[in-house]
Amino acid sequence: MPRPDSNSEAAKTVRTVTLGRFSDALLDPEQPTPAGIVGPDGKKADKRFDVYRNNVTVSLVGALAEIYPAVHRLVGDDFFRAMARTYVRSEQPKSPLLFRYGDDFADFLEGFEPAKKLVYLPDVARLERAWLDAFHAADAPPLDPAALAAIAPDELAEQRFKAHPATRVVCSRFAAVSIFSANRSGADLSGIDPAIAEDGLVTRRDFDVEVRTLPEGAAAFLQALVDGNTLGEAAEAAVAVAQKFDLAAAIGAMLEAGAFTAIATKD
Amino acid sequence: MTDIPAWKDGDTDASFTDRTIPARAGAGLKPSHVDRILQDDYRIGFLEVHAENYMGDGGAPHRALTAIRQNFPLSVHGVGLSIGSEKGLDDEHITRLKRVVDRYEPGLVSEHLAWSTHDLSYYNDLLPVPYDRKTLDRVCSHIDRVQEALGRKILLENPSTYVQFEQSSMSETEFISEIARRTGCGLLLDINNVFVSATNQKYRPLTYLSEFPLEKVEEIHLAGHATDIDDEGDALLIDAHDRPVDDEVWKLYDIVIGQMGPVPTLVEWDNDVPEWPILRREAMRADEILERRAANYLLGSRHAAAG
Question: Domain of life, per the record (chain A) (predicted)?
Fold first, then answer.
């Protein structure tokens, strides 16, 4: 491998490129190739520099497509790539853990004018983010129903629960859970009325992430428990939003889903 | 050489046996291949993972890697340390890497001569560094820090490059040789990267290889590349990892193994990942070359000699 040409170094001032200069030009197609970035024999390197630009954009757009597969399918590949490129230019990952990328992609979608008609899209993205966070969450055995059964009935309302690391509650004004589930299982959306509000519960008992539609009031109930409130307080929060809230059914569902790992000791 | 062990001796409460990587072919591990690999009659020599994919807290990725590690030696290949970074290393990321290494007890740990993070933005690409004194000092101090934190030697991989920095004052081989000499790190020789960079920068791959400190190479990478042209119509190869290894790269590999004897050899295939049998076929082709060259290598493996 030849050494860089020392004659040309003596003949002219060497242009120094900092990595900051290099990175500024990576995501801004308006910027020229940094002066001092060259091809062999000092020739111009625009197309060569574009390889890096392309690698960065394509790989980050690809990462978003993997994190948000339902959003990808719902809008189609061309639309998704154009939309994701806009996002990538303004928001780069803040960590080399790519599966954490795009935690505000749903907020970006809320404000993305060309996708405005798909009103449910941001909530589908929120569910997909919750799904991947649950997928990578720490392992923990779910609460044994016998532990709850052992509590005296008059003490039940005072109990607090420790949330499983995978548990997420996602509330939507649209049928985001049905759309997400149908899309991920390859079913068509024809029977779904997107205007019906749905809340979803994301859990992971062992290794498979599960997503359930919650009955009215259950989201407020579970969120209150996740936030550390007592069972009694959580039931009140649920009744406040849904008068017909069924407490026994909600407790049964939370145990079945493995949303909690333990009964917390009293504070 | 160096007094930093490849892994800690006397680590008797190890949960996995068999951590030494054999001088055979290995494959980059893809989640979709895990079950096939575990059931396959062909026992691959080892598997390699990108460390960052196993930095989550739990779940299916760790279950799969644990099953693999219970059956095969493992190599951990980092893609996110950003060793060439101008603004220092991320302590938190070093800690995460250490956690992966402590948990899975790999036979080899490697990273790239590249940067990927600047001012908190992670670009998910292996970006080039200038080959000058200042960068050399910085890269060496970063490698020192990583080896100290992990308590073991790491291997540094030569990059695929598409451009040069006018400010470079050394050749890539001089730069890499000096890093290995100063830090005691080992080297990961990516022969596809040699071929890609040599074509793109207009030098002969064999010249590069003759200047490369092969005695410090502890692992080889092979992968496929894509073909493009630059502004003037000259060949511009892209390190795409999306197809079989090129015949020219196989020829160089054969020459390198003929010269240095059998070395653990990884076939990488990261994009448009095929079914396992296709990747296995590539690994078996590397195994054939390793076996043939081992038979001719009368002096025996330098690895066995070096203990």
Answer: Bacteria
Q: Are residue A112 and residue A221 in the same domain, yes or no?
A: no
pLDDT of B188 over the 60 cut:
yes
What number of other Cβ atoms are within 10 A of residue A158's Cβ?
12
Q: Which of A9, A41, A60 sits opposite B124 (nearest CB)?
A: A60
In a domain, B167, yes or no: yes
The domain in which residue A159 lies consists of 121-267
How many folded domains does chain B comprise? 1
How many Cα atoms are found within 13 Å in the side-chain-facing hemisphere of B36?
Answer: 13
User: How far apart are alpha carbons A143 and A252 in whole angstroms?
Assistant: 12
In total, the C-beta contacts within 8 angstroms joining chain A to chain B are 174
Same domain, A262 and A208: yes
Task: Tell me what percent of the residues of chain B surpass a pLDDT of 90.
Answer: 89
Number of alpha carbons in the 13 Å side-chain half-sphere of residue A242: 17
Confidence check: pLDDT of B79 > 60:
yes
**What CATH number corresponds to the domain at position B252?**
3.20.20.150
Q: Are residues A142 and A253 in the same domain?
A: yes
Of A38, A95, A204, which has the smallest distance from its Cβ to B163's Cβ? A38
Residues 6 or more apart in contact with residue B295 via CB below 8 angstroms: none
Q: How confident is the model at residue A1 (pLDDT cuts 50, 70, 90)?
A: low
Q: Report, as an integer, the average pLDDT of B186-203.
A: 98
Q: What pLDDT digit, counting tens, does each position of B140-174 carry?
A: 999 999 999 999 999 999 999 999 999 999 999 99
Residues in B closer than 8 angstroms to A41, CB to CB, are 202
Query: Both tokens of residue B204?
Result: 């002969």
d(CA B23, CA A189): 53
Do A86 and A31 share a domain, yes or no?
A: yes
Q: Are A26 and B60 inside 8 Å of each other by CB?
A: no
Number of domains in chain A: 2
Is residue A63 located within the same domain as residue A109? yes
